[in-house]
Structures are given as C-alpha cells and as structure tokens.
C-alpha cells in the first residue's frame, strides 16, 4: 500500500508518491438535455440541483483520479462503504452570487477550503489540494452559471462533499474516498423568510461534546439532532437551542452560530457569541460578524442604520441560560440571532426553556436592528455591491 501524508494545502507526499488532485486533468461531459430553471420564488433550500456535478476518486495505490464534470445524477457506491456504515463524510456549504459586474463570485472561499481540509483530517480521510478544489469549483460554476439566481437573498449553493468509500465492515479509517461537488439554486433557508424563529433550549440531548467533532463540518453532527428537532416542533418551536453541561452553556441554534446583544450600563452594546471550544463550528458568517462588529467600533466602517457613536463590544465568551434569563429580566437582552452560510442572519424571536419563554421585542421586517445591519452588510459584500477586505472573490480569479 502506498504511504501518503499531507504537507500543506492538502498536498500529498509519501514514501511511494501518489497522484494529487489536479484540475488540469479535468474532463467535461456536458448534459445532452438541460433542465428548465424554476421561478426563483418556488425554490426550496437544496431541493433543486443544477445540470452538472464534479466527481473524483482517491485510491491509495494511485492517488486522486482525473476529476470529471458530468451530468448530475446518482453515484455508484458499495453498500459496505465506510461512509454508509460509519458515517465518515465531510462537506462544506458555500454560495455563488452574480456581482454588480455580472460575474460570478464566492464569499471567503479560502475559509471554506481550510475548514474542509480540517474536517477531512479529523475523519482520517485522504488529503487533497484545496487550491485544486477551488479551481474545480470555478470550472463547475462557469459551466452552470445560468443557475445563479439574479435576486438579492438568492444564490447558487455549492456543496463539496468527501465520502469515505473503503469497502468492508471492519472498523477502520477509509483509505478510499470520493469527492463530489454539487450546485443548487437557493432562496431563503427558512420558508418564512426573515421572520424571527423560535428555539427550544434543550440540555437532555447535545449537538456536540468536548473532544468530539462539533468543531468540524461532518455529516454525523447533524442527524442526531433530527429527533430532538421533531420534538421541539411538536411543542411549537422551529429550532433547537443546544445547551451543554450542568451550567447550561449555549452552544448553537439548530445548525447556526448564536449571537446575543446585551445593553451595557454606559449605553453601548455587548455583542456576545460562545467561544470556539471544539463543540462549536467555526462558521464563516460567524467570523464575518465578529470582524464587521469590531470594524464598526474601531471606526473602519459603519454598519447600516447603526450610529457610528454606538460601540459594539464584540466578545467571545461563555453564555448560559441563566445569563439570558437574568439579562432579560433586567431589560438588558436586546436581540438574539443565528448566523450561518445557509441562513446568513436570522433573528430569534423566542427562546423556550422548561416551560417558560424569553420573548424578544418584535421589529418591522422581522429582524432586530443589529441583526438587520449585519445581514444587510454581508449581503452587500457577497453580492458585490460593496467591497470589503477581498471577501467577495470573482470565480474567474480562483
């Protein structure tokens, strides 16, 4: 068996060198019949796929195969493959937009690629060159660019997925893998649009635990939450606010990072989010909110409809349910919102815990002023209406 290891950007090196992922070897088989594009207002998140997808396989004796763009369709995977039997699948969520120049662009794709590489390493999957993955995404988006919606708040969702495909039932890492990149035109993640969501805080089940995989984007993080979500929905809530430990630490809301805005005695606002302790996904949107909040306070930018004189004291700190209850009782808890690639920013209108609700003030348009400011600024950057720190990258430059 060939030996291999990652030496940077996922580049492969070993005693017996195997082929790295190479976008220059790409072959393209176009669909003979293109699908009609549905009206944008009918799009449900992730239900519609574009015409094509990209596929490449890793074999430990050969390395990565020549990547292929082919018509979107089923993959052939043995039922004994480790991704089916042991769930070693990782993925990313990215979005492509049409900028004001009419060209497709991605939002901070370097962060997605770095996280994909970390997730693959955590699941002991074969490494890959992240620059080559981005080059392949560029090719795929270029071919299917007609699927990028031209309406604000809409985009083309990009889902790179890596699956362990070692065949066999032995409990062991997978030395075979399949890379598949799919594209899906999407609108608002929640069918209610920007209406505030309600969340039931639960401590009986957990999304992630210290030393686990919560800090990585792996498939097995998500399915254990489906049953608790069903229970919460039967109680009239739309999402789960995941708690951890005896002190009831807030971690994530559904699949979103959580922020809360708390009024300070001096009139400024503390903008708080839980720290990255290994149980929380390091979200790209989370990082963007932190950076923009700090830039507002430093005077480097002014968030929409937020006075420049209003300082946002951005902090990564532990937040507990007792904290939220105390701040709410004291009239200091101004807003709570979730942040993520799929949703961008979503206000939380109600948090339930043990039969009692924390209810936030209603705002016109469904977003609190701070949540709205971040959503507006991030969408403006993503869709090319504003330029900020090279966050919006033209696909042609990948």
From TrEMBL:
Keywords: Amino-acid biosynthesis, Aminotransferase, Branched-chain amino acid biosynthesis, Pyridoxal phosphate, Transferase. The modification N6-(pyridoxal phosphate)lysine is found at residue 217. Its cofactor is pyridoxal 5'-phosphate. One of its GO terms (biological process) is L-leucine biosynthetic process. PROSITE patterns: AA_TRANSFER_CLASS_4 (PS00770). This is Branched-chain-amino-acid aminotransferase. Its EC number is 2.6.1.42. It catalyses: L-valine + 2-oxoglutarate = 3-methyl-2-oxobutanoate + L-glutamate; L-leucine + 2-oxoglutarate = 4-methyl-2-oxopentanoate + L-glutamate; L-isoleucine + 2-oxoglutarate = (S)-3-methyl-2-oxopentanoate + L-glutamate. GO terms for cellular component: mitochondrion.
């Amino acid at each position: 068996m060939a030996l291999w290891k990652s030496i940077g950007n996922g580049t492969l090196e070993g005693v017996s060198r195997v082929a790295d992922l190479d976008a220059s070897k790409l072959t393209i088989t176009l669909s003979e019949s293109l699908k009609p594009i549905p009206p944008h207002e009918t799009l449900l998140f992730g239900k519609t796929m574009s015409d094509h997808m990209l596929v490449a396989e890793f074999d430990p004796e050969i390395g990565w195969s020549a990547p292929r763009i082919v018509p979107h369709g089923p993959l052939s995977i043995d039922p004994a493959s480790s991704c089916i039997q042991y769930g070693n699948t990782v993925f990313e969520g990215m979005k492509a937009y049409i900028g004001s120049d009419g060209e497709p662009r991605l939002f901070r794709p370097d962060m997605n690629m770095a996280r994909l590489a970390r997730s693959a390493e955590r699941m002991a999957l074969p490494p890959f060159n992240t620059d080559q993955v981005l080059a392949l995404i560029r090719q795929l988006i270029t071919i299917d660019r007609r699927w990028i919606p031209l309406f604000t708040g809409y985009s083309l969702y990009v889902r790179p997925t890596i699956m362990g495909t070692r065949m066999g039932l032995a409990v062991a890492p997978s030395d075979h893998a399949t890379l598949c990149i799919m594209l899906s035109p999407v609108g608002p993640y929640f069918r209610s649009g920007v209406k505030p969501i309600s969340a039931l805080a639960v401590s009986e089940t957990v999304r992630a635990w210290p030393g686990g995989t919560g800090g990585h984007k792996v498939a097995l993080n998500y399915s254990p939450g489906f049953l608790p979500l069903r229970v919460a929905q039967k109680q009239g809530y739309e999402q789960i606010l995941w708690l951890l430990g005896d002190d009831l630490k807030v971690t994530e809301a559904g699949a979103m990072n959580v922020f809360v805005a708390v009024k300070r005695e001096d009139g400024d606002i503390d903008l708080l989010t839980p720290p990255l302790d290994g149980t929380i996904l390091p979200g790209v949107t989370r990082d963007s909110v932190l950076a923009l909040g700090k830039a507002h306070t430093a005077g480097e930018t002014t968030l929409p409809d937020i006075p420049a004189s209003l300082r946002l004291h951005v902090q990564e700190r532990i937040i507990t349910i007792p904290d939220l209850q105390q701040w709410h009782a004291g009239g200091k808890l101004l807003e709570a919102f979730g942040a993520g690639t799929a949703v961008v920013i979503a206000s939380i209108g109600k948090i339930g815990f043990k039969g009692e609700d924390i209810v936030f003030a209603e705002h016109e348009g469904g977003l609190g002023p701070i949540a709205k400011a971040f959503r507006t600024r991030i969408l403006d950057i993503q869709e090319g209406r504003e330029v900020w720190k090279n966050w919006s990258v033209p696909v042609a430059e990948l």
